Amino acid sequence: MKNKKKTLTRSIQRPFRFLLRTLSPIFYVKCEYKHITHHKLNLNNPVRYTEKLQHLRLFEYPKNPEVIKCASRDGVREYVKELGLEQYLIPIYGVFENFDEIDFNKLPNQFVMKCTHACAFNKIVLDKSMLDIKKTKKQFNKWLKTNYGKKTLELHYSKIEPRIIIEKYIGDSSSLPTEYKIHVFNGKAKSLYVVTGRGKDIRYNNYYIDWKEFDGSQFNGWKKTDHPLEKPQKFEKMVEIAEILGKKFPFVRVDLYNVNGQIYFSEMTFTPARGTLRLDDDKCDFEMGQWLKIN
Are β-strands 111-115 and 179-185 bridged in parallel, bridged antiparallel, or unpaired? Predict the structure, then answer.
């Protein structure tokens, strides 16, 4: 009975949420922010890091053509090339307008499929012979029709053409590569978090950019590893790449991989988790807020 009540409640709330997002996006974001962070959102005089992300999310980034370009998984590749960093791009097998354009016979045994206009609309293929093409087509057709920006009120995504990009898989057969997510504030890298164990036992370790632990910035209940992580090879080069890519923006998270010293660019994220981050130590929200200068 309890589960049925929850299902009924969600079915009532879902159309209401859609209506509220459409008619009053600012009010919706304020409610969402309050519900997740337990803080009242001040958009007139934002002080917290998470408040400033909401300001950028609502008022600045949807109007910035370079943000829109760099939020796109294919557009950002052009941006990386323009800045002379093409050597760090993951090789791709093509960009496709629709699923039927893909010739799976020409693809290797392992690859990664992603939608260009959204976050987390991905499929990692580790064994092509096991891929259910019919099921995968149905999923990607649904994703391609989804207005992700409107759904999440990260409206810079709404102006990206939905397509499918297929990348080379750079992990190994037993694990996905470690991710280094570097936060760049007004062109300066200040902190990062490292994601390990994705797909198995995911952990998030937070650091200042000098690799000192920044545990208070852990967010949304994630846990760190039981052991300290070693700074990767060529970390200073990774920071340099992140700052070059992020220099034009008030804030961006630059995601990189480092596979045995080979650096790969992954993506640029302008409003992580829609900016609705619940930090372990509330003081860190203000500390990071001081790093971010907005108009």
Answer: unpaired
